[in-house]
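As agreed, record passed on underneath.
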Amino acid sequence: MFNDLKGKIVLLNSPPDSGKDLAASCIKELTGAKHCEFKSTLFSVAKGITGLSHEDFFTIYNDRDKKEHPQPEFFGLSPREMMIWISEDVCKPKFGKLFFGKAAANQVDIEKGSVFSDSGFPDEVFPIADKYGAENIYVVRFNRHGSEFGNDSRDYLQPEDCPECVNFIDLKNDGDTIEPFVNQILQEIRSIQYDKEHLEQTFHAL
C-alpha cells in the first residue's frame, strides 16, 4: 500500500448518488487514509433526539425511500428534514456557522491522510484549513451521469468561497467501476503535488 495522501485532506464534493461514499472507501483501501464525514456530529445529535439505536437509525436513514418521507420515529419529519433542521435551525444558530467544520477538523488524521465523503458547505472548510493548512486540502468536484444536488442543502464548493490556496480538481465519475475513477483522483493529487515541488525547486534555484 502506497500512501499518496499522507499530510493531505481530500474533500469529495458531488451530488447525491454520484459515488462519494464508494470512492472514499476505495481511497481508504488503496492509501490507508482515514474516511471521515462532516455529518457524523449530525448523526450523533439525531440519534440522541430519536432515541434510536445505531442500527435502527441507519436502517431507516439508508433506505432511500424512507429517507425522503416523514417517519414516526423522526417525529413526523423525513430523516433528511431532521438533519437539515438540526444543522440549520439548531446547531449553526446556537454555536455558529463553523460548528461542524470545527468538529470535522478533530476527526482528521493528518499522518495517514483523510478523505471526507460529504463536503458541500464552504463554512466547513475554514476550520480544517486553519488547523492543517489550506494548501493541504484537495476539493474533488464531480458528478455521475448528470447527477444534481436538487433538494440537497449542499452544493459545489467554489474557490472564491473557500480559503485561499485550497486545491480544486474537477472530474466525472461515469465509469462502470470505482477504482479507475479513484486512481484518477490520486493521479490528479500527485500532479498538483509534483507541480508545487517543481515550482519550489525552481524558486530556490534562482
